[in-house]
Structures are given as C-alpha cells and as structure tokens.
Recover the amino acids of this structure.
C-alpha cells in the first residue's frame, strides 16, 4: 500500500540516493500528476505560436487537455479544453485559428476568452440556467516572461515571479540572441516518445557526465563531437586517450532552488565561429545592439537550462524542450526549433538543420539518450538493488557569488539531488 | 448512372514512351541496400549535392524553415553513416532489421534532354529490434539523374503517413 504520506515520500529520497519506486511505481506516478503537474508552474507554450486573435494551440498540462488561445483584446488565455456541458474536448486540432470555439457534440459556442456565447435550442434550458456559469474554465494562474507562457493548476502556491525569477537570466540569454530581441517558435517541432519515466529525461538534460559514453558514436577519432552549431568547424572535444577530455571535465553546473539549474561552458571556441550565415547574423546583431553587446551575446555562458519540472532551454544548438508524462513508464517530449527574429534566414536554417540531426526522433544524439532511458526503466525492475545512486560530488557544492547560485562540477550529480529536493517538496505538501 | 460514372475514363499516370521498369529496378536496388545495412553503398547512390528528406509535417513546403525528421546533405549523411558503423552506437546494439517494400512506381516527370526524372512510389518499411516491431508507410519521390545504365539520386523525399506523430527513436533511413 502506498498512501502518499510525507513519511512514505521521505523514505524514497535520501541525500545521495533515491528509491527505484520513484521511477516504477504507478501509485507514485499518480501522486506526481496530482501534486507536481497539478500544482507546479508548467511551461504551456510561446506567444509567437498564437500571433493573431483566434490563433490557438492545444496541449496537456499533466493529463488535462488545455487550449492556449489569443483573444480579440490581444491577451493570451489558457483554458481547459473541455466542454462545460457533457465534457467533450472542444478544440481538436493541435493548432489553428477560430473566431469561436464550438463543441462538436451539441454545438455549444464559446468565445476565445472562454465565455459561453450561446447554447443551441436555449428554450430547453432548465429554469435558472445561466450561461455565465458555463464558460470554459480558466487555468487558475498564468504568467508570461518574454513570450514564454506558464500556468499553474493550483490557485495558491509560490508566485510566478518567485518560481521563474531565478531563471529569467537564462531566458534572456536565449532571447537576447535575436537581433530584434524576440523569439518565434514557428519552425515546426520534433516529437518523440520513450518507454521510460519522465524524470529520466529531466535528469538527463543537465547531465554532462554521460556524454563521452552514451554519445560515443557521435565522437570522431580525434575525440571531437560533430559540429552542432552554425559556423563551428568542429564540435566539442569530449574524449582524450579513451577517457573524458580535460576540457569537458571543466564544465560546471548551477542550481538556484525549485529544482531549476543549468550547465555552463560549451567547450567550444566562440572566437573561431564563422560561416557566411553566422558572419551575416553577427553583423546584423552588432548593427542592432552594438559590437560590444553583440560580442557578449555571442559568448554564451549557458549550455542547457532546466526550469523544473517540464521545460528545458538549450543554449548550445538552440531549442526549447517540453517534457510530458504519459504513464509511469511512458513519456512524450516535444522540441521546438527557435527562430531568432531579425536574424538572416540562412542562420535560422543553420539552427533548424543541425537540430534535425541532434534532436529529431531520427537524430544522432537524442536517440542515444532514449536508448539509455529505456534501459534504465528495464533495469529498475530489479528488486534486490532498490537504490539509485546520485551521490557524485555530494558535499562538494559551493556558492557562486556572480550568479547568486550554488555551483558544482558538471561531472557531479548536484543537479539531480536538487531536482529531488524540489520533488519531495511538491510531493509532501498537502493539497 | 450516377455522376461519378459519367466522368471520362481516367488518364493513367506515367509518361508515354518512358518505361517504368528501369526505375522500379533502381528503387528495388536501393531498398535492398538499406535492408542489407549497406549504408555506405546507399549513400553512393546520391549525387554530390544529393539530399535525403523526410518531412515532419504533411505537404511540408521546405526543409529550410521547418523541422524535418531527416534532412541530410552528403556531409550529414556521412556523419550519420559513420555513426551507424560505430561499434558503440548503443541504440543499434542489437541492430534493427528492416524489410522495405516498394510499390506503385510511376514516372511523374521526365526531362529527357537533361536526363532527369521524378519517380513517385509508395514504401512500407517494417522495422524489428529487440522484441519490438513497427511499421513505417509513406509516399516517396525520387528525383533521379541518368548515369549510364543506372541513376543517381538528386533528392529522395519520403512523406510518412504519420510524419507528425511522436516517434520512438529511429536509427536507419526509411
């Protein structure tokens, strides 16, 4: 029996290890859906996906279907995608434009702010039926920062500012690369699923320790990964004499509470980056923001950032990744290429082209991680060894005054421990 | 007689005077190379500026402004194949086994002077790996250039029926 009491939760997570049940127990998963995905600030979408009034996208928060739609007044609304009459999903397409949201079943008609406009055959309505009580439900809380829209299914809890505040600089790092200072998530998406728990992907995005081994097949005889950014002649050196390369080992990880974190040091030489597309982009950026600021922007300090629990922002070969739990052993991930608004089309194509080979379902890099997740899920069926070790670098964390964060070696597991501290916090808090 | 039956007899596809058989044999040859995991020989079928494209949405108009499942030029194809031949490609340990079936081959366009042809066909690929079998099906288009008795691929485009769905990891070209 698992009732989800704080005592039971606390027993699953120790300072340097976690019980395998956090990955394999369907009861734990149900509780995560309720207490994490039913409560935390989750990334929903980007305002550039709904540029015009009536534009919408549909997705799920946890398992709840929602629609993010731009209303006539220009505001972006996050609504429960569920007819208030008999429960049918109202909007069925992944994206589109509609002046009204009309339910297929009995034709109830909703405005793009959720208000119920009209009921078919109103003469049959019960006495006292009031359309004002039957609008599409709004997600209790929403927040937006530079186009990134988040929502919380809980009416109370840490404010959007408290949650996202420490990670704003990481969003800025990406958005500032656009000469016009804005991003567009309008270049399609990559979608993949794997037979494994959602946290395997969340833990992986800030894991630098696995790269020389999991991604061995992406490394050439000189120990360098293939080039992953427009303008790079070669990729990062990750292997030296059959061991992890020293340059790779110097990477650092950072945590700032709430499970958030990032990794630094791309291990690439930004001063040598050059190609016709990149040089033109550099020129346009400098023209907009000045040469000094452009040079700063083009020396990125971030590799990958995690806004716990469902969003990762990749600063290396730029993209946004959203993690969606489907079942205790099944997860879906969506990856959006990013168009830097104001950058030359050739530069944006460079990003799209390289993202195809690093993170599509048929890519060279992501697919190795998916294989690792599947094998973890299978291995974790073992009952004689119940504990998963996350103790690398335990006690070696130190304060980083520059970023007001805690830092450690990226070869350590500080970031995973931080994620589980946040996990325990969500899971132990009474509804 | 209903309206549909009053329509004129359909014009069958193909180009008068151009036999589809050599093209069909070429596509069968290509499919056999992929099933035999002779990826390097498969790459050799492409022209130097040849591309292999599997769009990620139906009717995708361009690989340049939208994500694709595959959009490999020769350089990326080379990286992909180096990786497929690498002893530590974990997601191909054990390797996939595939069966390609090519059908409905038709010559859609022909420029005899330039020796260039657009060939439409359907492809079904069954992939098996470690107790999991799955099916990919799609319409494909090969833009070919005559090279002696055979052809080179200028572009191969595969439009999968489920191109915009969420996939488990894919290793081998369709």
């Amino acid at each position: 029996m698992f009732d989800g009491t704080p005592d039971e939760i606390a027993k699953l997570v120790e300072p340097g290890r976690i019980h395998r049940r956090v990955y394999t127990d369907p009861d734990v998963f149900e509780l995560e859906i309720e207490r994490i995905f039913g409560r935390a600030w989750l990334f929903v979408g980007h305002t550039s996906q709904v540029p015009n009034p009536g534009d919408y996208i549909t997705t799920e928060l946890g398992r709840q279907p929602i629609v993010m739609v731009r209303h006539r007044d220009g505001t972006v609304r996050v609504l429960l995608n569920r007819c208030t009459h008999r429960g049918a999903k109202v909007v069925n397409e992944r994206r589109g434009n509609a002046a009204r949201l009309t339910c297929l079943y009995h034709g109830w008609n909703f405005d793009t702010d959720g208000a119920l406009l009209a009921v078919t055959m109103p003469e049959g309505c019960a006495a006292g039926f009031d359309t004002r009580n039957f609008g599409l439900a709004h997600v209790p809380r929403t927040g937006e920062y530079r186009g990134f829209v988040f929502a919380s299914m809980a009416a109370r809890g840490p404010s959007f500012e408290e949650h996202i505040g420490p990670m704003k600089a990481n969003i800025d790092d990406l958005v500032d690369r656009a000469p016009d200072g804005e991003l567009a998530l309008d270049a399609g998406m990559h979608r993949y699923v794997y037979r494994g728990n959602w946290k395997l992907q969340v833990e992986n995005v800030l894991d630098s320790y696995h790269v020389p081994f999991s991604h061995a097949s992406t490394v050439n005889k000189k120990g360098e990964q293939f080039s992953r950014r427009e303008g790079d002649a070669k990729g990062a050196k990750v292997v030296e004499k059959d061991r992890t390369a020293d340059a790779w080992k110097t990477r650092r990880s950072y945590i700032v509470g709430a499970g958030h974190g990032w990794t630094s040091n791309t291990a690439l030489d930004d001063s040598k980056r050059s190609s016709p597309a990149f040089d033109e982009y550099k020129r346009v950026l400098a023209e907009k923001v000045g040469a000094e600021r452009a040079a700063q922007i083009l020396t990125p300090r971030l590799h990958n950032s995690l806004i716990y629990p469902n969003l990762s922002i990749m600063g290396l070969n730029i993209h946004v990744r959203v993690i969606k739990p489907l079942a205790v052993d099944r997860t879906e991930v969506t990856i959006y290429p990013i168009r830097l608004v104001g950058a030359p089309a050739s530069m944006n194509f460079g990003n799209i082209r390289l993202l195809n080979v690093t993170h599509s379902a048929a890519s060279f890099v992501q697919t190795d991680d998916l294989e690792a997740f599947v094998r973890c899920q299978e291995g974790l069926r073992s009952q004689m060894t119940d504990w998963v070790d996350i103790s690398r670098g335990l006690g070696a964390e130190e304060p980083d005054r520059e970023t007001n964060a805690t830092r450690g070696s990226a070869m350590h597991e500080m970031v995973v421990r931080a994620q589980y501290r946040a996990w325990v916090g969500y899971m132990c808090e009474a509804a | 007689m209903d309206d549909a039956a009053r329509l004129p007899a359909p014009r069958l596809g193909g180009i008068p005077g151009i036999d589809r058989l050599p093209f069909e044999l070429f596509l069968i040859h290509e499919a056999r190379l992929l099933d035999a995991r002779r990826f390097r020989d498969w790459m050799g079928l492409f022209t130097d500026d040849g591309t292999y494209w599997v769009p990620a949405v139906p009717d995708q108009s361009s690989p340049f402004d939208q994500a694709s499942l595959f959009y490999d030029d020769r350089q990326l194809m080379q990286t992909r194949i180096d990786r497929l031949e690498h002893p530590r490609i974990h997601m191909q340990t054990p390797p996939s086994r595939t069966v390609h079936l090519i059908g409905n081959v038709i010559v859609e366009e022909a420029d005899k002077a330039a020796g260039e042809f657009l060939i439409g066909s359907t492809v079904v690929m069954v992939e098996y790996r470690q107790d999991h079998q799955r099916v990919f099906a799609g319409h494909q288009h090969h833009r070919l250039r005559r090279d002696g008795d055979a052809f080179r691929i200028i572009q191969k485009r595969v439009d999968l029926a489920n191109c915009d769905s969420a996939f488990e990891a894919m290793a081998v070209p369709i």
In short: Residues 345-359 of chain A form the longest helix (15 residues). The two ends of chain A are 20 Å apart (CA to CA).
